[in-house]
Design a protein that fits this description.
The protein is mostly helical and about 170 residues long. It has 8 helices and 2 strands; from the N terminus they run H-H-H-H-H-H-H-E-E-H. A two-stranded antiparallel sheet has the order 1-2. A hairpin with a 2-residue loop joins strand 1 and strand 2. The longest helix is centred in the middle third of the chain and has 23 residues. The radius of gyration is 16 Å and the shape is globular.
């Protein structure tokens, strides 16, 4: 079980997201989110998933691809932090990534399959971390963060976007 991080372990702008997480083992939550995402998208046709909630916003496919891209980026950061990387890791421009993702040309099913494989792989990585590794720190996008907090931020980021999908796209 990965302990909930202290507020000093991550940038303060993540606090509202982490506060929304249920009080449970974060690894179980990350595992459950696989089914949550699959269920959420199970009845959305590809044509509907190309729709945005408003002018200038991402489509549902782009939002799903953003979650997948963020999953990869956050897990790379977790790997680096766990291995003692001292270099500051770069940030990323999520809008540029979305614009260049080709998500709207893909099927929802193909993105979901990729998402599930990446998440399951990351869960294996996260479960391999020792308590000492979880206490390690790294710097990404100019911000110092603990490995433990990074895993919670990944779960919180996903929950945030699940809520956006439900409230703005599917309501």
């Amino acid at each position: 079980m990965i302990p909930r991080p202290d507020s000093a372990d991550f940038p303060s702008y993540y606090q509202p997201y982490i506060d929304q997480l249920p009080d449970e083992d974060v690894l179980n939550l990350l595992e459950r989110q696989i089914e949550d995402i699959k269920d959420l998208f199970s009845n959305i046709p590809d044509a509907r998933a190309k729709e945005a909630c408003a002018e200038g916003k991402w489509t549902m496919k782009e939002l799903l691809q953003h979650m997948l891209d963020s999953e990869r980026i956050f897990s790379y950061r977790a790997l680096c932090f766990s291995r003692g990387e001292q270099a500051s890791l770069p940030g990323y421009d999520e809008n540029m990534y979305a614009a260049n993702s080709n998500a709207n040309a893909r099927s929802v099913q193909s993105i979901l399959e990729e998402y599930e494989l990446v998440r399951k792989s990351n869960l294996l990585l996260f479960r391999s971390f020792t308590p000492e590794m979880l206490e390690s720190y790294g710097v990404a996008n100019g911000n110092k963060m603990s490995l433990c907090a990074l895993i919670y931020v990944l779960a919180a980021h996903e929950l945030h976007h699940i809520n956006i999908l439900k409230e703005r796209y599917l309501s």
